[in-house]
Structure formats: C-alpha cells, structure tokens
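User: Study the fold:
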Amino acid sequence: MKTVFVGKAAIVQEHQAATDASKAEATLREQLGRFGASIFAVHDISLSISQPWFVPASALNQLRRDALQALEAARAAGFVRLPRAKPVEPPVPFPEDTLSYLANVYNQKAHDFYIKHGVKVIDAAYESKEELGEVSLMITKHCVRFSMSLCPKQAKGVIGVKGTIKAEPLQLINGKEKLTLRFDCKPCEMHVVGKMKQSVLNQHAKEMKEFPMQFYRTRPAPQAKA
C-alpha cells in the first residue's frame, strides 16, 4: 500500500509570453522535476496552462523548494511511530556464562546487558588495559604461512613434504616492536599476539582514576536467597 502525501506551493509571477513555446514548456518540466537531492521522486508532471509562459529559473526553483517543504511537513505530520516491543521476560540466557576480553565489553551498559542475560564472569575489553600479558590482538583468516606456501594443510599428502612443515610461530618486526604470529590450523585462523606497551598502561591508569569501572575477574559468590 502506498502512502500519499499532499503538499501545495504557489508563487505570484507576472505573465510573460514565451518567445519559444516548446522550449518554455520543457524548461518548466525540467526545473520543477529536479527532486534528485530530496527523499521524494517525480513520476509525472502535469501542466495546466492556457499557453506556454516564460518563468525565470529562480522563481521555478523557489516554487520547487516550497513544494518540497510542504511535502516534508505533510510526511512528518502523518508519521506514526510503531510501539516499542516488550522485552522478553525472563531475559533469554546468553549461551556462555563467562566472557573473555574478546567479547569487547568496555562500558557499563554492555556489562549490565550481559549480567541481565545470565553471564557470571566478564573480562574487560582489551581497550580497558587490564590484559597485561601477551594476548591475541587480532584473529584473521588471512594466513602468512599460506601466502608463503608453508601451510601444513597444503603439504598434506605431498610426497617428501608430508610431516616436515609445522605451524610454528613466526614474528612480525617493526623497529623495536615484535608481534608473534601463531596459527590455529583447524579453523584456519592466524593470531597476531602481543602485549600492551607500558606507556599506554601509564596513560590508562590516569584515566581510570577519573572514570573507574569494575569487572569481575572471578565468579562472584552466589547471594543467599531470602
């Protein structure tokens, strides 16, 4: 079902006969039909005139803008907001009751959402700077070993190669920074492993004094029922 919005616009313009009748009518249709940058589309323009009149482009542009404003106002007046769906009660339990930093829980609202859905232990997102050791900074399907034709799966069954290639760690080195590449061949994943820089940790410590946030590192003790 289509929704029809009605908008009207008018201008007062002195009648001036067009020197080129066919060109004048084409100009009217072209100027009035330029709705390209709006949310509306022009499907047809009907002109009811006694004769082709010359109308300056500036007047036609103003008429079109006024018509667009009228259509937008009519659309806004007819807008009906759908009622918000009622939340499921009790909340649907999350498939896991423990989340690592990979769940990317960084603010209190995200934390409260998972608690509401039954999660018991929530590690902070990596951006919270609580993971001090080496962790997977990025997990990707792109594999350096595969690109170098050193994938154990590629070598599987190849005579003279089978068993000689192992998914051992490699390193990415950029100046003094070193990142370890570890390979989980079963799901075909490459992990870029590293740890947080001390300078980043120092800056974060200052920020946490101003905006502290609490996360559970161990499962909280169950509360006694009344």
The two ends are 56 Å apart (CA to CA).
